[in-house]
Amino acid sequence: MKLLDIFAKLKGDINQIERELERSVTFDDELLSEASLHLLKAGGKRLRPVFVLLAGKFGHYNLDVLKKIAVPLELIHMSSLVHDDVIDDAATRRGQQTVKSKWDNRVAMYTGDYIFGKALTIATELNNPFIHQMLSKALVQMSIGEMEQIRDFFNTKQSIRNYLLRIRRKTALLIAISCQLGAAAADADRQTVNRLYRYGYNVGMAYQIRDDLLDLFGTEKQIGKPPGSDIRQGNITLPVILALQDDNVREPLLKEIDAIMQSNGTSDTSAAIKMIKASSGIELADRLATRYIEKALHALEGLPGIGAKKNLIDIAYFTGKRNY
Fold first, then answer.
1. What pLDDT is stored for residue 258 in this prediction?
2. DSSP state of 74
3. Bridge partners, 92 (sequence order)
């Protein structure tokens, strides 16, 4: 089943979550509302709400409860994107102007903080300490991951381990708790909740690695931003780290990355991308993403064979091969 088919099956519930998202960011302050809605209307896959809904199928499915998990998680994701765009000085996202580009850095930062605050407000409507604890721990880890990325800008000596820890914090944890908390809010048993957390974590790791690969070989239409944006911003991702371990391209690639850094990200990245593609970095990174998908599928073993399980399997396969 294709991803669009999964979304179509959940269309009614996703539409309700979409309305809740819009309502939650609408505020008396005209500028905050306009900036928040601009980000919301730019779209997105809404994968985190979908994970919440599918995980909820393994327990007592109640949309009125699940949306209090799905909406906050998507808002937290949105707020992190606004802050990322300021840090990365990004002009576009998903083919649309970023908040910082349409307004300025100050509006973007306060918009991100506002959306973040709204997420926490909605989550507190659920009287479940476990949900609050897991959510707060993930938010702390996300913040650490963001700081680690800033610290490692243009750091060509960083290890694969450091990269994996960073994407665990920045990306995988939020997807993991989308699955975990969706099941927990539906009162699924502990083993099911833990299995879904492991599934989400491994899918999240593969998702980010694939995202980093797409930045190198995807088109601007596919990824919604100019290819090579990561290198231009100083974000040294897994395929670059692996390419730097290839003796055939290491020295010339180091020179290209240094030139990009010296130009403050304004120089052309096409030569660096060409070298990375000529190295073993792309293949090795893709192989690791596939391993994470295999781990995600393994985590689902033992769960009841309901439609939601099949949907999660399909999403895992999509993640491993996605090109947008």
1. 92
2. H
3. 97
Amino acid at 127: N
Tokens 């309901």 belong to residue: 306
Distance CA 197, CA 238 (A): 24
Rounded CA separation 37/300 (Å): 36
User: Distance between CA 251 and CA 196 in Å, rounded?
Assistant: 43
Reading the block at residue 173, the tokens are: 């944890």
SS3 (DSSP) at 212? helix
Q: Strand 92-93 and strand 96-97: pairing?
A: antiparallel
Alpha-carbon distance 280 to 31, whole Å?
47
Asked if 56 and 182 touch (Cβ cutoff 8 Å), the reply is yes
- pLDDT tens, residue by residue, 30-57: 787 887 887 777 767 788 999 999 999 9
Over residues 254-313, the pLDDT tens digits come to 999 999 998 876 778 899 999 999 999 999 999 999 999 999 999 999 899 999 999 999
Q: Output the pLDDT for position 1.
A: 58
3-state secondary structure of 77: helix
Q: Indicate the DSSP class of residue 266.
A: -
H-run or E-run covering 92:
strand 92-93
CA-CA distance, 310 to 54, in Å (whole number)?
10
pTM assigned to the model: 0.90
Task: Give the pLDDT confidence score for residue 249 in this predicted structure.
Answer: 92
Instruction: Give the integer Cα–Cα distance in Å for 301 and 219.
Output: 36
Nearest to 20 by CA among 119, 133, 140: 119
Which residue, 65, 103, 57, is CA-closest to 82? 103
Q: Which helix (H) or strand (E) holds 264?
A: none
Q: Which residues pair with 93 in a beta bridge?
A: 96
Give the DSSP letter of residue 224: S
Q: What residue ranges of the chain have pLDDT lower than 50?
A: none
Cα 2 from Cα 78, distance rounded (Å): 25
Query: For residues 184 and 196, what is the distance between their CA atoms, to the nearest angstrom?
Result: 10
